[in-house]
Each structure stands twice: as C-alpha cells, then as structure tokens.
Write a structure and sequence with these properties.
This protein folds into 2 domains: 165 residues, VC0802-like, CATH 3.30.2130.30; 157 residues, Rossmann fold (3-Layer(aba) Sandwich). Helix content is 27%, strand content 28%. It is built from 9 helices and 16 strands. The strands form 3 sheets. It has a 7-stranded mixed β-sheet, with helices on both faces. It has a 5-stranded mixed β-sheet with strand order 5-9-8-6-7, covered by helices on one side. The structure holds S-adenosylmethionine.
C-alpha cells in the first residue's frame, strides 16, 4: 500500500473522497487530517495519480515517512532526507533541483516545525542537491500536524499540481481589477491554454474586466461582452471592444472572423452556460481553446456538471474539468474545438 495526502476544497470533501476511492477500490485506510486534506493508503503506484481524471481532487503528494512530533523529530527528519536522497534512485538525481513544499495541517503544538525545516535544509545541503529557484524538478512534501511530520519525495511531473497542496499563489499586483483574474491565470497554466499573442479573444460575461485584462496582457485583442460596465482601466483600451449585451444576444446577432479563444465566466446556471458555449463553438477557429467556469448550486454538483459535460461534448473536445484553487462554488472547463489548430493570423 502507498500512502498519499490529497487536497480539495472543504465543501467538496465528499466528492473528492469518492473520486479517490473510485481510483483505489482496495484502499486500506483513510482519514481526514484537516478540512480538505485526506490521508489514503491505496494499492496505486504514486505516479498513477497525476493523470487520474478527477474534478475535485486538487493535489496528491506521497507520504513515505511519519515522524512523531516529539523531541528529536527534527533530527529524525534530517536523517531521513539524508539517507533517502543519498541512496538510489534519488542519489542519481542530485544534479536536479529540489524544493521543500511545507504545509501546516491544523494547529501545531510547539516549535518543532521551524527546527525540522532547518534540519531538512541542512540535509539537502549535506547531500549537495540544488535548491530550486523557480519550478523544481523534485518536491519534498512536508506536512506538519500536531502529532507528526509526514514526508514524501516525488518528481514534480508525478504530482497532480506542482504547487504545495495545489494552492497556486499569484502575486497581487496593484493593477488587479478583481480576484477573478487569478482564475483565468491558473486555468491557462493548469490546462496549457493557448491565448496567442496578436490573436482575437471573445470574453463572455466580461465585467468588471479581470479576464479581459489577462487576455490583453497576453497581447490579444478582446471583444468583451457583458451588459454591465467595464472597469475604466480596460474600457479605455483601444484593443478592447465592449459590447453591452448578453452572451446569447451577441452570439445570435453578430458574425465575423472566428476567434482564437473564447472565455466565459458568466454568472448563470451551468447548463445554460454550456448551451451558450456550444453555440459559441461555431465562432472559434478549429483546434482553438475555450475556458468556461460552471457555477454550481448549493447541492447536486455532480449531476449539474454531468449535464453540462453532455452538452459541451457535442461541440468540443473536453480536455479537462477541475475545481482549481481559485474556484469557489464553480469548476473550470478546458475545451478545444475539433480540427487542427491554425495560426492567429489565419
Ligand atoms: C463573475 S462575473 C465575471 C467576472 C469577469 N470574468 C472578470 O474577470 O471581471 C459574472 C458576469 O457575468 C455577467 N453575466 C451574467 N449573465 C450574463 C449574460 N447572459 N450575458 C453576458 N454576461 C452575463 C454579469 O453581468 C457579471 O458581470
């Protein structure tokens, strides 16, 4: 059995656990460590989880060692890292970069966390591995609870998310129009969305303009559709055309050259939004990407997602549907139109 920690939004715990269990039918043990973080012992190899299709599970990291939170814990952690990285298979990878991804799960008792992290740093220095300055090759996952330190080492390509706990942080710039910007930035990164420089984007439900700003920062011209006002910082931009109408009306009344990307963050029922996106597919180039958030009601999340998925599948290749770190009561869909991709000026 291999132990893993998985994370999800606290209000998606039940759904995330059933996703994990669906992929690990012979799981031996399970417990919640804190809200949105579960520990599961399953028959699966760790590498299985990175490509397991799951909507609600944000991150999965390995747990290879449990060190009781007691005197000497820091020294035990140091010795564990020293021994593990000093032996095969890790000893052949010491030229690659390592990052320590530390998370505190629930309240801690004493000051062992700082001492343990210092000890792990010391072990890494002793082994002579490179510390990652940007994206690491390897992650040392350290989860601290009141009772124990859980340690695991994995290649970042095998982690569901390259970020500790799947929490993708973005620096808050002074120019931020709204926090929604983080949703699109995270989706572009997580789903490898193509927003080509010099291309044309359609932003449905664009107000106040956060996603429009993200697309403009990628060098795209944006048609922003929303009955509501745009923030003056994007409204005055000559490469933003604000059309003050609904998405439905825009799609039925307008025509013109196809877009390179369509994004849709309209606040409405998930099935209606999917219907509108299905209609919008005809306005996208072949092989072009679309990003859609599905707003979820208080209950029945899965049946609403399934209904929207069935609608979208008729017009798009559904690349992924996930509840990303910056999603609240919603999920993000990554879609691509059928056919081979064309360059932005085609
Ligand atoms: C969550 S906000 C979008 C935020 C936006 N993505 C941003 O980054 O600024 C939802 C928007 O959907 C718009 N909306 C709701 N129904 C719509 C419809 N039928 N057509 C167009 N926009 C709609 C609302 O006016 C609201 O501005």
């Amino acid at each position: 059995m291999n132990e893993v920690l998985f994370t999800c939004q606290p209000d998606a715990e039940k759904l995330a656990l059933s996703e994990m269990r669906e992929h690990a039918r012979h799981a031996a043990a399970f417990r919640w460590i804190t809200a949105g973080v579960g520990l599961l012992a399953a028959e699966r190899e760790f590498s299985y989880w990175s490509s397991a299709p799951m909507v609600y599970v944000r991150h999965v990291c390995p747990v290879d060692a449990h060190i009781p939170m007691a005197e000497g814990a820091a020294e035990q952690a140091r010795r564990y890292i020293l021994q593990t990285l000093g032996s095969p298979p890790y000893s052949t990878h010491t030229a690659e970069s390592f990052a320590v991804q530390a998370r505190t799960l629930g309240p801690l008792g004493g000051g062992t966390k700082g001492a343990a992290l210092d000890a792990i740093d010391q072990a890494l220095a002793d082994v002579g591995v490179k510390r990652a300055s940007g994206a690491p090759d390897w992650a040392i996952s350290c989860a601290f609870t009141r009772d124990e330190i859980m340690l695991g080492i994995s290649h970042v390509s095998q982690n569901k998310s390259p970020w500790a706990g799947g929490c993708r942080p973005f620096a808050r710039s002074g120019e931020l129009i709204c926090r929604s910007e983080f949703k699109l930035l995270e989706a572009i990164e997580a789903f490898d969305i193509c927003a080509p420089h010099g291309g044309r984007a359609l932003d449905l439900g664009a107000s106040p303009g956060g996603w429009t700003r993200v697309l403009r920062n990628s060098g795209m011209r944006v048609t922003a559709v929303d009955p509501a006002e745009l923030d003056p910082r994007v409204a005055v931009d000559p490469l933003v055309e604000h059309i003050r109408t609904t998405g439905q009306r825009y799609l039925s009344d307008s025509s013109g050259a196809p877009f390179d990307i369509i994004v849709n963050d309209m606040k409405m029922d998930a099935e209606l939004s999917a219907d509108i996106m299905a209609q919008a597919a005809a306005r996208l180039k072949p092989g072009a990407d679309a990003v859609l958030t599905l707003k979820l009601p208080a209950r029945d999340w899965q049946s609403r997602i399934n209904a929207a998925r069935n609608i979208l599948a008729k017009s798009y290749v559904i690349r992924d549907i996930r509840q990303l770190f910056h999603n609240r009561c919603e999920v993000t869909c990554a879609l691509t139109t059928h056919g081979a991709a064309l360059p932005p000026d085609a």
